[in-house]
Structure formats: C-alpha cells, structure tokens
Amino acid sequence: MKKKVLITGASGTVGWSLTHRLREAGQYEIIATDLEEDEARGIQALDMTDAAAVREAVRQVDTLLHIGWAEDNEDFLGKVLPINVTGAYHIYEAARECGVRRVVFASSNHATGYYSTDEQVEPEDPYRPDSFYGLSKCYIELLGRLYADKHGISSINVRIGNYPGDRPPDSQRAMKIWISERDLAALFICCIEADASIDFLSLYGTSANAGNYYDIGYLKDLIGYEPQDDAEQLRHQAEQQYGELKDDELPLQGGGFTRR
Q1: CA–centroid distance for 55 within its chain
Q2: In CATH, what number is assigned to the domain containing residue 219?
Q3: Which residues constitute the domain of residue 33?
Q4: Is 70 exposed, middle or buried (0-12, 13-18, 19+ CB in 10 A)?
Q5: 162-181: per-residue pLDDT in tens?
Q6: Structural domain tally of the chain?
Q7: Which active-site residues does the annotation give?
Q8: CB neighbours of 75 closer than 8 A, spacing ≥ 6?
C-alpha cells in the first residue's frame, strides 16, 4: 500500500513543485491542499487556521509536508502569528491526534541569517534569525522539537536555501544556496523515507553548489540525500537570461534580510 502524504501550500512555488514531482514519482498517494481549491491541478481547499478542518484532512495520513505559508515579513502580529504560527500548531496538534508518524516542515536559511558567510554553520548551532520571517521559522522548528519529545512525532525541518522554481539562480548569493527542482524533490523524498528512529532533525536544503554556505555532505549517510546539481552548471544560462548576476552577497548569510 502506498504511503499517504498530505502537502500544505501546494499552490506555491515549493509546494507545487513537490506536488508535481511526487505525483510523477508514483510511489505515494498525494493529497494536495492550499487555502483555495484548484480543481484543475487537483488541489483541495484547506484553511490551516481552522483546527477542525486540519484534523479532518490529516486522518489516516502517514506523512505531512508542511509547506503552506502566508508571506509577510512585516506584519508579524497581524499575519505571521495568526496564520503561520497558529497554522503550524494546528498541523502538529492534528498529527498528534490522528497518529501521523512524521511532519516535514519547510523552514528557511533565514533562521540562521545573522551568521557571517565565512562561518560554517551546523543545524545544531543556536538560532540567529534575520527577520520576523526567520524568527517564525525558528518557532515552528521548536514546535516540532516539542512534539517530537513529548508526543513521539518524527519532525524534520528543511531549511531551504534559494528555490526559484524552474528558473536558474539570479544572484551571487543565490548561486551559493540554490536548490534545483529535482534535488528539492529528492531531498523531501529522503525525509519521507528517513529511518523511523529519527525523532528530530534540522538540515539545510541546497544542491551541491560550489561555495555552499552549508556542509550537506553528511546527509548522504544520514538520510540518503545525494544532490545531483550545482548552480555553477547554470551560470552561463543565468547570465544569458538575466545579464550580470546581482552582487547581493553581504557579510551575513541572510543577505538583504539583514538590512531590514
């Protein structure tokens, strides 16, 4: 029997890429959800602020890929907390109530954006968020830690680097932390299939880029992730498409977010 995987935020750039790729792989039964229904793409409506609706949606699901996110870095009290943080709470609480074995959360490199670019940051290092956006990602990672420790839900946080969809990276910073579409799908499949003994794990999600800010080589032995792509392979294509790549690499890993 195929594992049943529910994806939140399936209409977004990351969510739709994962939905499409995982459906294409054919090894899972995919339930794609977002705030609004998209019948043409097979996406069901799910409001993450509605606890009862979330609980109903995740019944008999094996794994949750929590990608859904309302983008707003400024309106922390009006949008980030009531939608993103509350929504994540409903996801983990529904997982507890319905016996979901694993939640994979789409976190961000901005959870540690105030480290300098010459520092090799490990996922276990202290949080250094560069924005309210990064701060809320930190909170939800810790929510996963709580539910792992207290309720036995295997929680994996993928701190995605730069994912522009099917376009090449458009800046010097993006070249370092970019992840390709096929590597993104492969990484999330590795997280779905990771050994059941993994109760909690945070990792950085990038391709095998030259000059990568993050060491991801250990993930091959840990969860089987072996990225196939390198942003440098696309540099010529990117320069043809965008012209000279933006020189946005600052002394801090969060880039422009550290200026706000």
Answers
A1: 21
A2: 3.40.50.720
A3: 3-259
A4: middle
A5: 999 989 999 999 999 999 99
A6: 1
A7: 133
A8: none
